[in-house]
Design a protein that fits this description.
mainly alpha; 8 strands; 3-stranded mixed beta sheet; globular; Cytochrome p450; 3-stranded antiparallel beta sheet; binds protoporphyrin IX containing FE; single chain
């Protein structure tokens, strides 16, 4: 270690940036916090920024804490690649894991088309059905039943069921598990617990250690769940492609392609399941070059791998993220009775007891919107994406990983005063009320600094579905039910600092008894 530190200290182009010596030139410092302190690197980043200022280097990774750096790194049209150390494992041919934004663009557009706001709105009934199912399941967890509902498990179950209802052929029916404890939900949870181990497994290309790549991959905490998912998804693909007439799918897609998204006809294209849709779209350019007689439904191995990887990735990308935001919001609401009362009053006024309400109407409710934004701000989304360039005036050599965790934006006291306090009211103020003028040059538009879904060319493609689910979930949950937590929630506790960034994975799940408010 000493030789490595000495050698690197004097000749490396990044040596001008500050940082603790051991962290600057070896992996051991960072690995200690992640592996021995249970993913504690994010917390240590905060400590190091207080010592070294707005940027410091840790093993070729330059980390910033200035919210303005976020806008420069995740800018529209940014050409930064994703960090291979973080994305080389798992579903490697998925959009999420594709490092070069240009390589990812075509497949990203296909996903964005599938999850467009228009398509999500047209599938409202399918999403609503799953949320209604959750509410009706929750109703049986009355105090008299003696068993409380575990919301840490209930939310991922509901979110996975929505995804499968929208995209896949074989429903998971997670919500039908008596205690919301379907083995698959538990498996995803336990594999995600040690996610940071992945950062320290050498990639297949790494010298020497790469020879042990099979062994290293077996240590990947996600290996177990990825193998199980791959098998399940392969079966799904085979069954759905046997069932669906691809010529019909092709005609329906060609029909959509003829119209701009806004002017698309009221066709039943929203019914096209994900795999045939994705397969047809990735084959479209090749087919256009080929003559019509060469049209083929053949599923080659490369495309099969892509479909499987996309199926795996979407289940990961679209499950814990939404479930975590729901859990964070509900925990805070149950701790802050005044905030909860204001939300319930707004919902009661907008939603008659015997009536229905659409998601688009829910989206117009200002306090519900503020609660959702605050839940997203304090659940942070994906916290450690990364990306050579000039950032904040610093010339950074090619090959350096640069990044800023979303937590440094969401918890910046100049953008969000008292940042660890759950305060939906901050979103109701006009943009000029947040003091950006002083340090950020112009008035703050707080929305600009809500970066839960990331920004730029690699931002989240599931944002419309996620927003839709959050509105429906918060709306239905607090209009239809009264929740009493089994353990009183402390209004002064901060989920972020007490439970790290993802309370989904703590040992004390949020359990509640329910009482029906309206039918
Ligand atoms: C509250 C819910 C969600 C949050 C907070 C969230 C957050 C994020 C973030 C921060 C990224 C960027 C990650 C990176 O740079 O590596 C991302 C990417 C992505 N998300 Fe989401 N996400 C959510 C829901 C969803 C859903 C429901 C889906 C799918 C149905 C989805 C699909 C994706 C995909 C495919 C990417 C990769 C995009 C790319 O690499 O170009 N997400 N998401």
């Amino acid at each position: 270690i000493a030789l490595q530190v000495l050698g690197q200290t004097f000749r490396h182009p990044l040596s001008r940036f500050p940082g603790p010596l051991l962290a600057k030139w070896t992996v051991f410092y960072r690995a200690y916090y992640d592996l021995c302190k249970n993913g504690g690197w994010l917390r240590q980043l905060e400590v190091l920024h207080t010592v070294y200022g707005r940027s410091f280097i840790a093993l070729e990774q330059l980390h910033f804490n200035d919210a303005r750096a976020y806008g420069e790194i995740y800018a529209p049209g940014s050409r930064f690649h994703k960090d291979p150390a973080l994305y080389a494992f798992g579903a490697t041919s998925s959009v999420f894991a594709t490092q070069d934004p240009q390589d990812a663009a075509v497949m990203r557009n296909i996903l964005a088309m599938f999850f467009s706001r228009r398509r999500v709105i047209r599938r409202e009934a399918a999403i609503r059905d799953k949320i209604v199912e959750l509410i009706s399941r929750l109703k049986s967890f009355k105090r008299e039943s003696g068993i409380a509902a575990n919301l840490d498990n209930a939310f991922p179950s509901m979110v996975l069921d929505v995804l499968t209802a929208l995209m896949f052929s074989q429903p998971f029916n997670m919500l039908s598990s008596p205690a919301f404890d379907h083995p698959f939900v538990r498996r995803m949870e336990s594999s995600s617990l040690n996610l940071w181990i992945m950062k320290y497994l050498p990639s297949r290309n790494a010298p020497i250690l790469g020879a042990f790549s099979r062994f290293m991959r077996s240590m990947n905490p996600l290996a177990d769940v990825i193998i199980a998912l791959s098998k399940l998804i392969k079966d799904e693909i085979t069954s759905i492609l046997n069932r669906v007439d691809l010529n019909d799918v092709r005609d329906r897609i060609e029909n959509i392609n003829e119209f701009s998204a806004a002017a698309a006809p009221e066709s039943d294209e929203t019914d096209i399941p994900f795999y045939p849709f994705f397969l047809e779209k990735i084959q479209e350019p090749t087919r256009k070059q080929a003559s019509s007689t060469e049209k083929t439904n053949r599923l080659n191995l490369l495309n099969l791998r892509r479909l499987i990887d996309e199926g795996i990735n979407i289940r990961f990308a679209g499950t814990d993220t939404i479930a975590n935001a729901c859990l964070v919001g509900v925990k805070y609401l149950l701790a802050h009775k005044d905030i909860l009362a204001r939300l319930v009053a707004e919902l009661d006024e907008a939603w008659p007891a015997d009536g229905e309400i659409s998601c688009e109407e829910l989206e117009k409710l200002p306090y519900l919107t503020a609660v959702i934004k605050e839940s997203l701000r304090l659940s942070h989304g994906v916290v450690s994406p990364m990306g050579d360039a000039v950032i904040m005036g610093e010339v950074i050599p090619a090959g350096t990983t640069i990044g800023i965790s979303a937590t440094f934006v969401h918890l910046n006291p100049e953008l969000f005063p008292e940042p660890t306090t759950f305060s939906p009211e901050r979103w109701l103020k006009s943009s000029s009320s947040v003091d950006e003028k002083k340090d950020f040059g112009s008035e703050v538009n707080s929305d600009k600094y809500l970066v839960s879904f990331s920004r730029g060319p690699r931002s989240c493609v599931g944002i419309h579905l996620a927003r839709f689910e959050l509105y429906m979930l918060f709306g239905f949950l607090f209009r239809k039910l009264e929740l009493t937590p089994t353990v009183e929630q402390d209004p002064n506790s901060s989920l972020y600092f007490d439970d790290f960034f993802t309370p989904l994975y703590t040992d004390d799940p949020l359990c509640v008894f329910t009482k029906e408010r309206v039918g």
